[in-house]
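Researcher: Before we compare anything, I want clean individual predictions. No alignment, no superposition, just each chain on its own. First chain goes here; please echo the sequence and then give the structure tokens.
Model: Echoing the first chain and its structure:
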Amino acid sequence: MTHLIRGLKDRPTENLSSMGRAAYNNSIAPFHNFFLRNAIRLIFYTVPTREHFLDKTFGKIDATAFNEILVRVLTPLEPFVEYLWKYYKERNLTGLE
């Protein structure tokens, strides 16, 4: 989730589908088996456009206000994600397939 939120903030012109695909590939894809990875790959073809997603999620909002929202979301989320990865690694849960 943090990869996608960071992408929304840092790459304002990239489409949501490729951003989501990159976030998935850089985070949990290595822990999924072949069938699940390919099923999720198909899902990315159904993702709405970035503009449609943002309009339905946040309404009409300017870029500065949108970036402020993303920072407010990322700030508490990142330590939580770090804690989860630490928890998974300590219990050897990152190698499951």
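Researcher: Okay. Second chain, same rules.
Model: Second chain and its structure:
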Amino acid sequence: MEQKKKTRTPRGRQVSVINWMGTLLVCSIPGVNLIALLCFAILGKSPSKRSFAIATLLWMLIALAAAVAALLAWPDQAAKLADTLRSMAAQTPQTVVP
């Protein structure tokens, strides 16, 4: 009788739902997300998490390039937006914390 060997799937480690929820929570924090995604892309043990991090970093680069291109293509609109944001910031009341 032939005995079947238990082989590990080539997918590697499976990532649990709780682990994915934690990953998405960390990725939703501005500033922390970039550092976390770089760590996942470089040090990630799971192929799915590593691919997720690389894909997300690529989308971030594409969005940054599109924003820079839009600012360079329409500098007058960017100046109007900056003026509007400055006037809105000047109108908000400043709270003083003792």
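Researcher: What stands out in the second chain?
Model: Residues 47-73 form the longest helix (27 residues). Additionally, The CA atoms of residues 7 and 13 lie 13 Å apart.
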